[in-house]
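Why should sequence recovery work at all? Because a backbone constrains its sequence more than one might expect. Tight turns favour small or flexible residues, buried strands favour hydrophobic ones, and helices have their own preferences. The token representation captures these environments compactly. In the example below, the structure is given first.
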């Protein structure tokens, strides 16, 4: 088995620190890895989503109009397929 290239630390491995915010004491993780990863994923998603309307606005509009014609069941299937493909990519990446 190939070892993973990137491993997020387990919760027990991340040091905690107490901070006072708004009169309440809270524990925060010192490792910003998870928030950095989520922010990076969101940024990448926005870049990919914006490529089609940026480069081919007429084609994108046509695809969008055809998607509006789909039934709820068909849209759910597209959403499910998208979720499954994304999950498989995350499993491969992980």
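From this structural description, the recovered sequence reads:
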């Amino acid at each position: 088995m190939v070892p993973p290239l990137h491993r997020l630390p387990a919760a027990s491995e991340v040091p905690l620190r107490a901070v006072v915010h708004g009169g309440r004491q809270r524990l925060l993780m010192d490792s910003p890895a998870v928030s950095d990863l989520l922010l990076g994923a969101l940024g990448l998603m926005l870049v990919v989503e914006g490529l089609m309307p940026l480069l081919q606005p007429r084609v994108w509009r046509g695809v969008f109009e055809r998607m509006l014609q789909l039934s709820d069941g068909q849209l759910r299937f597209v959403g499910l397929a998208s979720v499954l493909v994304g999950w498989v990519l995350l499993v491969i990446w992980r």
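A few observations help interpret the result. The beta strands are 16-21, 24-29.
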